Amino acid sequence: MNTTPDNSDWRRGQRKARRVNPSEFLKSKILLPSLEIQREIAETLSSAQHEIDLMKQLADKYKTQKRGLMQKMLTGEWRVKPDFVKSYGK
């Protein structure tokens, strides 16, 4: 009997779990990358997180700028010329 579920079982969210004895689990070896590679991975992730944070700050600034521009246009403080609007329609 095949204990591996076929693809249709996975698509339906069904699985056949096997119970693992804790003493067996604790005996198993877990392979880890070398300390140097772990540091490189951590540095890469930190750099990516920093870039994500910068992009979020930039997006927030653009949202604030857009809100201010929309407010000025909606209150009539600024007028948009019809020719300008038509040029974006092309």
From TrEMBL:
InterPro entries for this protein: Restrct_endonuc_typeI_TRD, Restrct_endonuc_typeI_TRD_sf, Type-I_RS_S_subunit
Keywords of the record: DNA-binding, Restriction system
GO MF: DNA binding
Taxonomic superkingdom: Bacteria
GO biological process annotation, one example: DNA restriction-modification system
Domain Type I restriction modification DNA specificity residue range list: 19-60
Statement: the UniProt record of this protein carries the keyword Disulfide bond: no
Family: Belongs to the type-I restriction system S methylase family.
Record-given protein name: Type I restriction modification DNA specificity domain-containing protein
Organism, scientific name: Chlorobium phaeovibrioides
